[in-house]
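Problem: given the chain below (659 residues), write out its structure.
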Amino acid sequence: MDLAASKKKVEALTAPRNAVLVGASDRPGSWAARVWRNLNRYEFPGKVYLINPRRTEIWDQPCYPDFKSLPEPPDHMVVLVPAAGVIETLKAGAAAGARSATVFSAGFGEAYDNDAVALGHELAAVITDTGLGVSGPNCMGNVCAKSRLVTLTEDRPLKLRAGPVALVGQSGGMMIFANAALEERGLSAEYLITSGNERGLTAGDYIAFFADQPELKVIVIYVEAISDLDKFKAACLMARAAGKHIVALKLGQSEGGRQAALAHTGSLAGSVEAFDAVAGEVGVIRADTLDDVVEVTEFLAHTGAAGGGRLSAITLSGAFRGLLLDGAERNRLQFPALAQATTDKLNSVLTVGSLVSNPIDGGFGVLTSADNYKASIEALQADPNVDIVLLQESLPREPGSARAESYIAMVEDYLATTRSAKPMAFVTPTSYSNNDYSRALRAKAPHVSFLQEANKALRAIASVARRDELEALRRTAVDDAPRTDAQRARRARRRRTDRLSDRAQGGCRHAHPQVGRGRGRAQPRDSRGHWRGLRPDDRRTERPYARRHAGLPAGARRARARARPPPRSRNGPGGDGRFRRRAARADQGRGVLCAAGKPRKSPRHAPPHPRRPPDRRLSGRAATRPRGGGRRAGWARTPRHRPARRDRVGRHQPVRGAA
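Solution.
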């Protein structure tokens, strides 16, 4: 899929030559007043024009009645008019030369308003016809640090600087909260896009644009519904090929959440299982909570990858060692046994007050010696059973923690100078807040991540490790794919042979669900061709599976016939025994087993059965006669032709009341 048009539209949205506020108003607290204040506060370099046909001047600036009256053609429109006037505004702006727009107006299908759905469809058609790059409707503005365009209606100060993160989501409030949490951790979001109902640009368009920005490392998206699945997948694959990480927070994990998405943006949120299937294909990491989004972003922005997910750790507390082990099991991670060479080296370094294991309880041995600490890290880095090294440490909030600051600097220096080093991350027992002092220390260690709280940290690592594992499997599948016509022909012949072999055995991997335990082995049938072991109600569901294997080649049919057991009578082993039970109930008192008055014999077509040991209570052939009857009860002759019943363990008991 060609995403060049998507990139061009997003570029027009994020780096315009000028901005035009349509529906400008100086009413305190209005969206227009907030947008005007932020455009001036963050020093947008382009011209800002105001349009309101009812006013001639606002904020000591001239106010124009329409686009034709502007001193220059409009480039970016900030649409703040009611929903009924949005479509005409976009048409007029596009005709005047505008390339993009941010539509704040709501009323296009959200809040269960069915009447507004048609207006939303009309808006989407107009956006397509005009070719505008539109964010919204029902959005809260955008932040673009590179161009210093801030139309976000946030009152709190923002830090505009180039950073490794881009945020885009259908909820403006959620993006504001995420941005505040990342700033508190020392991470800057260079882009913050609120996409609203996504009648114009969608998540796929923004991801495609972010894929070409070299300074970005992590793309965070908040998704209620995917508007264009093919574009979304193509953009995500493009971003992953460019080395960008994508973290998604998906609304709609419950029925209530899906209803909330419908009320919020009019989005028909699909199931989270369906989203996970798509995300797994294109390398997207889904987080369950906003806290998880922050932890995963912190890990990816500084560490980058989790390797194979085999953990090792150096703790300063035996209790924290236990918390890590509990968290690893909860998140399906493992602390494997260390190699013998690693154990020997650690035993020579750590003595009294330390526990050499995985995780390591460094205790006194590492708290009192920086050399021991570094030697322990090097030992774990050299261990072939380890993919990532975790260290217990938190960022100091004030001067006075010389040991912690020196250990953080030591780890940063090791990672910066050792190219082949395995990923490393600091982990703390609890969550904590940062201040200017701790953020300054954090900025000095860009190659290591600082994760908070053991379970959150391991959950973030586990999600990244699963993403890496799925991508490794896909690369292996691509490497194994046939590349020449001869290889494709051999694979086709092998698959055709496997199918014929499965059919010849009377079953396949997709056999009837009631008899699927055979997994490809021939399943026994009764005399009418039904699968044995099926209840009468299940037999009609078996027929489509039997028809699936009809029309086989002659050789396959003969092989299947040889594999199938000979037909069995209804009263034989495996039969339902219905006739036998009816006759026994009717003639039990007369000592006969059937209406003809003759004792029942073994089924004529039954295969040979093992002879049972002689029974002294029986005589003649009855003493060693093959077992007959159904699965639960069978009948045999007694010396005086009395009916006898065989119990579940094979003993014969005379029937009460028989002559």
